[in-house]
Amino acid sequence: MQAKASGSASRNQVSREERDVLEEIARAMSPRPKGYTGIGLGMPSRRPVRAKIPKAIEQTGPASAITPAVGETDDVPDSDEEEGAGPSGHNGGDVGQPPLEEDEDSEYDEDWTTDEESETGSSEFYSVATESLGYITSEEGSVIGEVVNQAIIEASLEGLKMVDDSDIAKMDRARKRLLLRNTELLDLRRLQRKKMIDEIDVGTILLDRLDQDLRRIGLNATSLLRLLELTGVLLSGSFVLPVLSAGMLVPNDMDLFACLGTYHTVISYLRKKGYTDCKQIYSGRRGRVYGKGLPDISMIFEVRNKKTYKINIIVSVGKPLLPILQFHSTPVMNYIAHHGVVCLYDLTIYRLGIANYMNDIPIRVELCFDKYRQRGIEIWDKLDEEHICRIDSGCPQTIRSLFDRDVVHIRFPDFMHTPAVEHRKCEADIAIWRLATGAACNSATVDELGFVVCEDAHSVLRR
């Protein structure tokens, strides 16, 4: 089991030479003892205590039935203070593997990716149809999400109807984790508000869900989060949504956002994990691009394994966060970093979202909107609820910041010792943005354009 490295030391390692980074990743990816059960059940650095669970609450699901017990209107304060239209193809053909400067007899040729394997691949309900993630807009998503969501709701009605809030408050962490493992983040925060659970419980549950989805595509949370910590890479797109709301959809690919200095390391890591089929599908402004181009994307690589699962590596011209701030709508303006799950708009946990397009919405973006509506997410062109323009966090006229109080940040258990806002500084010291749909809001404005500023890079959203 890997040693726990300090957060500050890990951030400083990002600037190491690639070989040194790979060495540390190799050590982090070394096989765990057979008896290790941590990452799928809680905190990655500790062996959890497994409590005996009474049969009455063994089969439980998300908290569809728990809402009456915890209230309808409570909010919980934060702990501190596109997928846009993109290329679905390319004109230049496959360019093969990107150059990686590794010695042929390097120690990295050994098998350092052995982990406890779980079953992966297509289920009997669906074929491997790719979901729309990040800047990649692909085929229509699988319908399995709807099937799973309904099954989870039914399970929750059976499992939670016999449990009230006082029962939850008396449980130990292991029992809470099993009971609430499929509960939506909205209800978890309501429970947190009532002090029946704390942020460690919430972070543990989200970490479990992330690990479950990763293992289905041949990865695991322990190793991937270590990679994110060493490189500053962010996981974003639709893959984050089922972590926030179990059963919403089942993505069969994911997006990793990297910078020019780290994408080689990511590709090398995924190759060791079985994603050996690599091709570059976008480079600068070359290739067929939908919408108005990807001005802040340098390259996009697509890697696949033998089971045809796909991972997109989007290489930003600046910080990995820069493209995420330009996604087509707020429901996908979320990301997973090594320290936790960050949701830039709290509307998302209510299954609401604001479009980031004002005019001439590309067809593929409209299809994405339709897909999310089918999954129960409403996409508005403005904040229809009564609010104060330029002040309410959901108003498209409001200038938002990565560090404002309306960002929802759930830290993973091993990172509770540092304030959440300090962790977000790993992504950028300056990150502010405004949506492109401000002119559609209730208060008249002459500001018809959105914008993004992330460190020394900036973009104007002419949509």
| Average pLDDT over all residues | 74
Helicity level: 25-40%
* Poorly predicted ranges: 1-15, 31-97, 99-114, 116-149, 286-292
What's the arrangement of strands in the largest beta sheet?
3-4-5-2-1-6-7-11
* Structural Rg: 21 Å
Strand residue content: 5-15%
By DSSP, the count of extended strands is 14
Intertermini distance: 48 Å
Q: Spell the H/E element sequence.
A: HHHHHHHHHEHEHEEEHEEEHEEEHEEE
Structural class: alpha+beta
Biggest sheet layout? 8 strands, mixed
Specify the overall morphology. globular
Number of helices: 14
Structure overview:
- The chain is α+β, with helices and mostly antiparallel strands.
- The chain has 14 helices and 14 strands.
- The protein has helices at 7-12, 18-28, 67-70, 144-160, 165-170, 173-179, 185-193, 199-216, 221-231, 241-244, 263-272, 321-324, 363-374, 420-424, and strands at 234-236, 253-259, 277-283, 297-304, 310-316, 334-337, 340-343, 352-354, 378-380, 400-401, 408-411, 431-434, 450-454, 457-461.
- α13 links the parallel β8 (352-354) and β9.
- α2 packs parallel to α11 (263-272).
- Residues 1-15, 31-97, 99-114, 116-149 and 286-292 have low confidence and may be disordered.
Task: Give me a quick take on this structure.
By secondary structure, the protein is an alpha+beta fold. The chain contains 14 helices and 14 strands.
Topology of this structure?
Blueprint: H1 7-12, H2 18-28, H3 67-70, H4 144-160, H5 165-170, H6 173-179, H7 185-193, H8 199-216, H9 221-231, E1 234-236, H10 241-244, E2 253-259, H11 263-272, E3 277-283, E4 297-304, E5 310-316, H12 321-324, E6 334-337, E7 340-343, E8 352-354, H13 363-374, E9 378-380, E10 400-401, E11 408-411, H14 420-424, E12 431-434, E13 450-454, E14 457-461
Parallel strand pairs: 2-5, 8-9
Antiparallel strand pairs: 1-2, 1-6, 3-4, 4-5, 6-7, 7-11, 10-12, 12-13, 13-14
Helix pairs in contact: 2-9, 2-11
